[in-house]
Amino acid sequence: QEQLVESGGGLVQAGGSLRLSCAASGRTFSTYAMGWFRQAPGKEREFVAAIDWIGSNTNYADAVKGRFTISRDNAKNTMYLQMNSLKPEDTAVYYCARRHYFYLAVHSDDYTYWGQGTQVTVSS
Questions:
Q1: 83, 12 Cβ separation under 8 angstroms
Q2: Could you give the 3-state DSSP secondary structure of residue 89?
Q3: Tens of pLDDT along 61-111?
Q4: What H or E segment, with its residue span, contains residue 68?
């Protein structure tokens, strides 16, 4: 079974940057689309960014467009989320997820495997 492990979260001041990583254990990482979601306290989980199986297509939530960049290295079985110009409203637990399909999706129901999450806290 696929296992996903996020890392790279932490505490950062507003305007700062963080780079999240999502390491996958399975042999089929390069076959499927991946995504990042986040959940702030008292709020529902929301879509952040997604990338297709080969990394040629990406999609971003409006709230992060122009500030966050999703990428993947299939040789390393790893996906990344570069987060720049962070804002206090970006504070949340960030989750990586894997689809059982080539093409990206923006709804959490379309993802099969999930990591345990990594906390990102942005101070003002």
A1: no
A2: helix
A3: 999 999 999 999 999 999 999 999 999 999 999 999 999 999 999 999 999
A4: strand 68-73
